[in-house]
Specification:
- The chain is an alpha/beta fold.
- The chain is 42% helix and 19% strand.
- It has one domain (2-214): LmbE-like (Rossmann fold, 3-Layer(aba) Sandwich).
- It is built from eight helices and seven strands.
- A seven-stranded mixed β-sheet has the order 3-2-1-4-5-7-6, with helices on both faces.
- Helix 4 runs parallel beside helix 5.
- The protein binds zinc ion (ZN).
Length: 217
């Protein structure tokens, strides 16, 4: 991790919807914060339309803000946009403009976002615009969300200790709305199982795997 903390002091986390980055990279984010990285976290959609009709529209916004504050991130570390879910393609240029502004203003050393192999329509937009915006300026890695991917190149493994897995599970527990609607990947068994699987590939108890689009030192 020394090279990561020395070379990747500023890390931009991109999440198409609330919860994507936590699911794909929550343990690593916890490890980066422990190593004093400066995190800027952007969510593009609070997915209001995906919530059951009897739930408050701002439920996912509140849940995400609880995650951020539990990690010690303040309003200055977080941008939460409210694009409509499944319609990011219609706002592609707005997404790119946001990312280009962040490239200028935050100048991240590394960007973490969804994979080009992710077939969720909103994730695909963020993955493409992320590469368009940062391919000349920053390291770019992509997190794993297996239910959306038909293939995944596990090129980078970030080893996690128990405390990082615990932190990831605690982040996901804030999303009571998602636990409530019984998503198969929103269980402790699934999250730990994937962590064990990626860990077993690198001789460690837990890990998260990433695709590497760019690695700049
Ligand atoms: Zn998503």
């Amino acid at each position: 991790m020394n090279i990561l903390t020395r070379e990747c002091n500023k890390i931009l986390v991109l999440s198409p919807h609330t919860d994507d980055a936590e699911l794909g990279s929550g343990g690593s984010i916890s490890r980066f914060i422990e190593n004093n990285a400066i995190i800027h976290w952007v969510v593009f959609s609070s997915a209001e339309e995906s919530l059951p009709a009897d739930m408050a529209r701002d439920t996912l916004t509140k849940e995400f803000m609880e995650v951020a504050s539990s990690l010690g991130l303040g309003a200055e570390n977080v941008d939460l946009h409210h694009f409509s879910v499944r319609k990011l393609a219609e706002r592609r240029q707005d997404v790119l403009d946001i990312l280009v502004s962040l490239r200028r203003e935050f100048a991240p050393d590394m960007v973490i976002g969804p994979s080009l192999n992710d077939y969720h329509q909103d994730h695909a937009v963020v993955a493409n615009e992320m590469i368009r915006a940062f391919k000349m300026s920053s390291s770019i890695i992509c997190y794993e969300l297996p239910w959306n991917q038909v293939s995944f190149e596990s090129q980078l493994f970030i080893r996690l200790e128990d405390k990082h897995m615990e932190s990831k599970l605690n982040m996901l527990k804030k999303y009571e709305s998602q636990i409530h609607i019984n998503r198969g990947y929103f269980t402790e068994d699934f999250i730990k199982g994937l962590g064990y699987t990626r860990g077993a590939q690198v001789g460690h108890k837990f890990a998260e795997a990433f695709e590497v689009v760019r690695w700049m030192i």
